[in-house]
Structures are given as C-alpha cells and as structure tokens.
What we know:
Blueprint: H1 3-29, H2 33-45, H3 49-74, H4 79-99, H5 118-135, H6 139-149, H7 155-184, H8 191-210, H9 223-229, H10 246-258, H11 261-290, H12 296-325, H13 330-350, H14 357-386, H15 391-418, H16 423-442, H17 453-467
Amino acid sequence: MDAVTKKKYNYWQWRTLIALIVGYTFYYFLRKNFSAALPAMEASLGISKIQLGLFLSLNGIVYGVSRLINGMIADKHNKRLMMTLGLVLSAIINFAICFSPKMNGVMHLLDTEGKATVTLVYIIGSLWVLNGYVHGMGYPPCAALMAHWFKPSELATKQSIWNASHSIGAGLVIALCGWLLSKYSYSAWNLCFAVPAALSLVGALALYLSLRDTPSSVGLPEIEEIEAEDHGVSKKEAVKDPELSDEEFRKFRNRMVFGNKDIWIISLADFCVYVIRFTILEWGTMFLTQYKGLSIGSAASIVSLSELLGGVLGTIVWGWFTDRFMKSHTIRTCVICMLGATLSFFIFWRIPQGAPAALLAVFIILSAFFVYGPQALLGVSASQYATKRASASSNGFVGVWCYAASMVAGVGFGFLADTPGFGWNAVFITTFIFGLLGAAILMLMWKSPSNGYEKAERVIAEIRGENNPSE
C-alpha cells in the first residue's frame, strides 16, 4: 500500500471510529435515560418497581430480537442509513413519552392526585418497548462497520475503544438526568426524555454525514487485502474473501452463526454478563438510594462514574490487554474479567449500610471496570468467530441472549426487590451466582482458536462443493 493510500485509509478508519463512538453515545442517551428516571417516575407517577421492571424486560427482549433481525439486514444492506434512521425514530419516541401526560385532557391518564392511571402506564410501557425495537438498528451496523474497516488482529483494541460509547453515553445521560432531577425535582422526570432526544437529533445528522459503509465505497482496498500485505501476519489471520451468491451467503451464515457452537457459548456467557451489567446500570440509582441510603444526586453520580470511569477504562484497557498479551484471544480475557466483576460486586453488597459513599463508589466502579471487559469483548468474539461476512448477524444473535437477561434483571429483580422476605439482598445473591456461571461457561472455550477465519474458508469450500457436486 503506497503512502497516499495508507494516509487516506488511516483518515477514514479514524473518521469511522469517531463517528460510531459519537453516534452510539447518542443511542445511549435515548436508552439509559429511562433507568436514570426510574426513582422519579416511581415517586411522581406512582408506577411500581414491578411495572418499571416489566418495561425494562420487554424493552430488552424486543431489542434483542430487533438486533437479530436488523443484524441479518445490515450484513447485506446500507448500514449508514439504518443506524441514522434508528436514532431519529428513537428521538421521536422519547419526545412522545415526555409529552404523553399532556394528553390527559383527551384521555384519562392522571388521577386526582396526579398519579398515572393504567392507561398512561400502558402508553409509556408500549412506547418504551417500541423504543427497544428501533434501538436494535444501532448495534448491528456498528459491528459490521468495525469488521469491515479494521483488521482481525486489531479488532479487539479498536472495537473496545468504540465500545466505550456505551459507558460514555450512559454515564453522561445519567449525570444529566441526575442534575435535572436535583435542580427541578422529581416532577421534572419528563425532561429526562426531552433533553436527550433534542441532543440526539443533532447527533443523527452528524452521523449520516460522517459514515461510509465500506472502504471500497471511498475508493480504498478492502481490509483483507491490507491484512494480507502486512508482513508477519499469520496464515490464520490472512482473510480470503471470495464473492458469495445470496444462497451461498445464507448457507454460510447458518453454518457460521446459528450452527456454530462457539457463538452459542458466547451467547450464554453474555446472558450472564448482562445480568450483572443491568443490575448496576438499570437499578443502580434505586438500590443506592433505597438500600444504601444515599441521595438521588449521590447515587446518580456514582452510577455515572461507574460508566464514565470504570466502563470507559474497562473497555479500552481490556481490549488493549487482549491484543497485547492474549494474542487477540478474547475469551481468556473475558474469564478473568467475569471473576473480577463478580468479586467486586460481592464486596459492594457486603459493605455495611451507612458506609461512606466513596467506598461504595470504589466497588461499583470496579464492578463496571471488569464487567465492561466481556461486555465489549464478547461482541468482538462474535465478529471474530463468525468473520466479517456475518458479523452483524452473529452480534444480532448474541444480542437476543444478552437482552433476554433483562427478564432476570428487569421484572425479575423488580419483583424480588418489592417482595417482603426477598428485597435487594436476593437481587445481589442472584447476580453473584450469574457471575460465577458466566465464568464457568467461558472456560469451555479457553483452548479454542482466537477467530473463525480458517473455519470460514473450509465452510465456503464445502458450500461450493455442495452447490457444484461435479467439481
């Protein structure tokens, strides 16, 4: 690759990475604002923890299914348009939630005390479930674009840098919502939806103007050609990329995603990862106020720091660690991280009530630091083991399992927290068990290859043999 092409390639790689970070940050503005608003919605509207947990669970399930559907679409169609459209639609839905109580004059949405009627609960819940579907238009294009723009040997580092957008978005929006609620009181819960929605519309425009689908769309060679040119790259990492017909691609995807035992193991492990992640992110402000006795401002600040400090550092550090010390073997790093996250969260739980907020913050941040390792790297694993051809589909399939975890961490934990005799202690015990289970599942792949590119070559050869039996 000549110097001019190399410079252009470097420019477009960084432009794509930055655009994806900013774009997905805004996706999280329109997703984790609900979690930040939970205590205010419970206090102002009288919506119970079980109802709020049900919204979280249904949102997560629909989001997971949407990731699978849109993942299969993104592997073959315009990723830039899909990601931008999803962000715009989510902003519209968040505006609708914000203004839904204003329809009280048309429908009976508030009772005489200003609390939500069943009708308003259904409206907000339905809108949040719909928001889950359009959010499934965000992650698959990101996974596919990362696999198209970055080599397998550097994907763990680069995708982990992108994955910091999860924590940046969640941390900033939780801090923003915490500030809004502290300044204007719980009655201003609707600002937690309107302000992020307005900001995200600006982000959607910037995203559309910045992204391009593939290197070839801007006159550059595809990534496998660059990988093959690099001296010192092993044969295992050098990717051959023959054209596949639609029928051949369908068979390839079925073999490399739905029939791939490694993808199934990754999916089950990610289910456990997301139970821990959702416990902190979805319920953090609530259990810190109700179980540990902190103010809403302090609780929101701690959860925000867990994302902005623990989450961002965790995604970047563990991605770099994987490429630098684990030879891009993501699974081994994930085992270490799962054990660290489980231990940190266990210590947080056992800290006595009334302990300094700073001590609680340390172990919540440590929990996030460790849990965001596998949260990022298992997505990389899905791309690596299914290869770039089916990266969006594989991440969509894994996403179904990730967000099925919302049934446990959403309505399940809402029920436990609200039920006498169980409470938050039962939530923490369950989270601890899932942490150990996730580490055990990942150990099944400890000796597996670091990616599936050699397997993909064999699968393509077998598929073409099936299609051309005379050869």
